[in-house]
Amino acid sequence: MNAVDVKGVGTKLIIKANADTSAIFLNSADGSLFDATFSTEFSQIVEADAAGEDVDDTAFLQLKDAEFTCIPGRDGGFAVSAQLYLTAETIRREKRRQVYVADAYSNCKKLTVDTAQIKAPACPAMRELHFELRERLPQKTPLSEIAYVAVSSVCAEANGNTVTVRSRLGGAGTDADGTPASVSMELYGKQDADMKAGAKLTVLSVSAEKPQVIGAAGEAELALSVCVVCSATSTSDITAVTSLTFDDDAPALEQGPSLIVLCSARDADLWALAKKYGSTTDAIRAANGGDTGFDADRRPLLIPRER
Questions:
Q1: Is the C-alpha dihedral spanning 291, 296, 299, 300 positive or negative?
Q2: Residue 277 to residue 3: CA distance in whole angstroms
Q3: How far is CA 225 from CA 14, 90, 130, 133, 212, in A?
Q4: pLDDT at 81 over 90
Q5: How far apart are CA 118 and CA 102, in angstroms?
Q6: 248 near 108, Cβ under 8 Å?
Q7: Coil, strand, or helix at residue 281?
Q8: pLDDT (average), residues 218-223
Q9: What is the separation, in whole angstroms, between the first and last Cα of the chain?
Q10: By three-state DSSP, how is residue 254 classified?
Q11: Would you tell me how many other CB atoms lie within 10 Å of the CB of residue 117?
């Protein structure tokens, strides 16, 4: 199964997808095996709780169960009626901007600032890992023909920054005597994801293509392409102001000179200069030519104090 198109309209998410089915049949006339593939198109509307241009939509589909019924047709042919039970999982990643106070100061009264170290989550980054699994088919009885091979199960798990994939394949063929025989094997692979240190990796979806049979039936290898979609969630440590204590009854801060001329090449950060000398960033900019052509690194720099 694969999603062809995922589109958000307001709070509704429209999913268009295809379900490709491969089946194996036994010819009652001569006992031979043959396979057939057909595709089913479907769509689904999911109601979501977020909307807007800053929302990214992703959909994952999973086949839960299936029922197939052979219906006799004309001239000895037949048709197959398929009933598929599918589930759709949607992920809406909304980009949000959060404002926080990193620092505060007062140039007239004593101000107590309490801060705390907090972890700010970053928008999860999507990762796609592609696995090419290939291994020789173990055979207790050599096969003369492999008629059909399909994925019966595929799963992935994340441990740290390593993703491990396991897949079970099953199918059917015939041995040297023409007797139907089963095909079964497991494929395994692992891969490291490139992500920031300390990020948490979560597996969102696993999908596999149709297995490929490589080589003659007696010495065949099975190859499988698997795509794993992961989400890498990381956080950043920031210092944020949690409370302010402003004592209105306390005496005003001791006033210094009304203008400071800074000649040193140090203390070039505008906010730090305003806080250190009891001024404001707007006052410093205005005293040094305004926003046009202003440079906090210029020397001498005039710093007017607020009185």
A1: positive
A2: 60
A3: 28, 23, 7, 6, 9
A4: no
A5: 11
A6: no
A7: helix
A8: 90
A9: 71
A10: coil
A11: 8
Give dist(CA 259, CA 274) in Å, integer: 12
Q: pTM of whole model > 0.70?
A: no
The pLDDT of residue 228: 93
β-pair type (221-233, 125-136)? antiparallel
Tell me which amino acid residue 44 is: Q
Please, what sign has the CA dihedral across residues 185, 23, 177, 215? negative
3-state secondary structure 195-242: CCCCCEEEEEEEEECCCEEECCHHHCEEEEEEEEEEEEECEEEEEEEE
Task: Retrieve residue 205's tokens.
Answer: 């979806």
Q: Is the pLDDT of residue 124 over 70?
A: yes
Please tell me the predicted confidence (pLDDT) of residue 162.
Answer: 93
Residue 141 backbone phi and psi in degrees, to 5: -120, 120
State the residue for tokens 């099975």. 222
d(CA 60, CA 231): 13
The residue with greater pLDDT, 109 or 213, is 213
Find tokens 């008629």 and name the residue.
147
* pLDDT tens sequence across 144-193: 888 888 888 899 999 988 999 999 998 888 888 888 888 889 999 999 98
List pLDDT tens digits, range 5-55: 777 777 787 888 887 777 777 777 777 777 777 787 888 887 776 655 667
Measure the CA–CA gap between 286 and 265, rounded to whole angstroms. 20
